[in-house]
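Async update (no meeting this week)

Hi team, since we skipped the sync, here's where things stand on the single-chain job. The sequence we agreed to prioritize is pasted below, unchanged from the tracker. I ran it this morning and attached the output directly underneath so nobody has to dig for it. Comments welcome in thread, and please keep replies under the output.
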Amino acid sequence: MRFMKVCMMNSDFSRRFFLLGSAALLTTLPAVRANALTEGEARTLINKAVSDINRVINSGQSASSMYRAFEGIFTKYADVPTIARSALGPPARSASSAQMRNFTNAFAGYMARKYGKRFRDFAGGTVEVTGARAVKNFQEVRAVAKLPGRSPFAVSFMVSDRSGRDKFFDLLIEGISLLKSERAEIGAMLDKRGGNIDALIGDLQKAG
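Output:
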C-alpha cells in the first residue's frame, strides 16, 4: 500500500511538472498563424502594389526617379531575398552571407531598372486586379494591364506568407514567369564571369 501511494505521488508530480514545463515552453515559442494566407489577404496586398505601380507610371517622373520608386515597390511587396536566391540558383549555397547580401541589393536595383522600363510603357494605362485563387500552398492574384492602343494582357502575382509576411515571389506577364526568366538570365551572366559572384554583382549594378 505504501509503495502504491509513493507511485501515485510520483505520477502526480510528473504530470504537474510536465504541464508546467509545457506551458513555459509555449510562452517562449513564436506565434504561428493558425490559417494559411487567404485569397482576400493576397488580393489586398496586390491591390496596394498595383495602386503604387499605377501612381508611378502615370506620375510623369523622370526615368531615374521612376526606377527608384519601382525599387521601393519591389522591396516593399516582393519577397526579394527568396527571388534573388532562386534567381542565383545553386551558387547561392556556396556564396558567403556578405555576397548574398550584396547580390540581393544589386538584384533589387537591377530588377527595378529592367522592369521599370517595361512599366514605363504602361504610361496612360492601368493595371487592375480581377481575381485570386489558391494554387498549392500559395495564392495567385490575377490582374489585367490595359494600355492605350494595345489589347489588354494578363499579369499574375504569386503570393505567399512563407517569409513571415505576405509577399509576392513571382510575377507572370502574359504567362511568362519573371522568376524563370531571371534564373536563366542570371545564370548566363554568371557563366560569362566564370562563376565569379563578385563580378556578377558588379555587372548587376550596371545592368537593367
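Quick observations from my side:
The chain is about 55% helix and 15% strand.
Residues 1-32 form one domain.
Reply here if anything looks off.
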